[in-house]
Amino acid sequence: MRLPPISRAVGAAALAAALAACSNSSASSGGGASSGGAAAGGDTIKIGIDMPVSGADATFGVYTANGAKLAIEQANKAGFAGGKFKLEADLLDDAVQGKHDPAAGAQNVKTFIADSSVLAMIGPFNSNVAKSEIPLTNDAGLTQVSPSNTNDGLTIGDDAKKLRTAHPDVNAYFRVCTRDAKQGSTLAQVAAQRLNWKKVFIIDDNETYGKGLADVFESSYKQLGGTVLGHEHITANQVDFKALLTKAKGMNPDGIFFGGNTSTGGGLLRRQMSDVGMANLPLIGGDGIADDEFEKVAGDTANGAYMTTAAPDAAKLATAKQFIDDYHKRFTDPLGPYSANAYTAAKIEIAAIEKAIADNGGKMPTRADVLKNVAATTNFDSPIGKVGFDANGDTTAPILSLFKVQGGKRVTIDQIALKT
Predict the structure, then answer these.
(1) 216: which of 12, 204, 354, 375 lies 20 to 30 Å off by Cα?
(2) pTM for this prediction
(3) How far apart are CA 170 and CA 206, in angstroms?
């Protein structure tokens, strides 16, 4: 594994200068942490992990966090930085009352920023939480690598620019998964070409991730010649979808597309399709319903549902065999769809920190040093293959996995390599 010299739209010198400017002002989050200063806390370096580890999103959050924790533990056992420094995982929960919460995520990031021993962070899991966090990590120059955020506006376009208003020339946010523009368009291709659906009814949860994915699906599906019979939004905490599903049934769709998470209604909606006589009608969605909770909530009606993850299925990769063996030796929890991604994200940050220590003569590095090294990542060997980042912080090796629920379990149908 290696971190080659930086070659991005923002050069190393410009990036370092911008981050140096950041370090001269306190972080906008409060806490007064010097964003570019050396870490405190003696020989301990922390990597923050922000995940929903309680409530309805816990099966996503816990299994994903496990991947990052494993990488940190292994680095310590291998004598990280010659044994002079110790890495520590600082895990904070961004779920409130059972659901991921942007305000909680932002507060967690403020906590990381205020602790100058935190040199990088992993997370969050959900895109709407990331939207609340990126302005803070950008302002502080704190490296943030997400294993699972897919919303396009986090890295590209005007929405991404608005998230980095404090320091427009600095990008502290990266992700090792692909974007919704690619996930949504691929889901449309699956629906129109593989499943031969001529007519669909679209439902989303009206959140950053769910609505964004549904909008991309709708546009792409129409371009492929499909007919969208309707596109409806459910409301927060809604639990009864029968009236909406009855409306959809009356239009005689070939399938239902759901944009959202299990925690925002995906599993219940699938179960209630049976209640209105749509038990045999297929449903398709993105990675928000690719969790064990979906099968648990939907029960037997989960069978026949399709979903993608914005990552390869690690169980199908020869490069992931050692990681999977190590994961199962360390945890009793199942392997999650983004466990290998989180492991990869943490390994990238660990390598960046270690290189920064070496470049600094064995002394504690700055956040700016770490960020410069993460930004320069290309061809990084990992369980999910060789990973790198483009100038926007997006992965240069986007892959989607397609699943179908059969016998109450997700079964891999295909792994689709996407164009960058």
Answers:
(1) 375
(2) 0.87
(3) 30
Q: Which residues pair with 307 in a beta bridge?
A: 285, 403
- Whether residues 191 and 172 share a domain: the answer is no
Q: Which residues pair with 202 in a beta bridge?
A: 231, 257
Range of the domain at 223: 180-309+401-417
Nearest in space to 181 (alpha carbons), one of 412, 409, 400: 400
CA angle 226, 228, 229 (to 5 degrees): 130
252 and 221 together in one domain:
yes
Asked if 189 and 248 touch (Cβ cutoff 8 Å), the reply is no
| Alpha-carbon gap, residue 26 to 3, rounded angstroms | 29
Query: Would you call the peptide bond into 124 cis, given omega within 30 degrees of 0 as the criterion?
Result: yes
Please count the structural domains in the chain. Answer: 2
Scored b (16 or more CB within 10 A) or e, 61-71 reads: bbbbbbbbbbb
- Alpha carbons 4 and 26: distance in angstroms, whole number: 31
Kindly state whether residue 2 falls inside one of the protein's structural domains: no
**Is 367 inside any structural domain?**
yes
Torsion, Cα of 161, 164, 166, 169 (10° steps): -80
Rg from Cα positions in the chain: 21
Same domain, 210 and 135: no
- SS3 readout for 327-357: HHHHCCCCCCCCHHHHHHHHHHHHHHHHHHH
Beta bridge partners of 89: 47
- Give the pLDDT means over successive 10-residue stretches in the chain (420 positions): 36 37 34 36 88 95 98 97 96 96 98 98 98 98 98 97 95 97 96 98 97 98 98 95 98 98 97 96 97 95 97 94 98 97 98 98 97 98 96 95 96 89
CA contacts within 13 A on the Cβ side of 232: 15
162 and 236 part of one domain = no
Cβ contacts of 109 within 8 Å, gap of 6 or more = 29, 48, 50, 121, 133, 136, 137, 142, 144
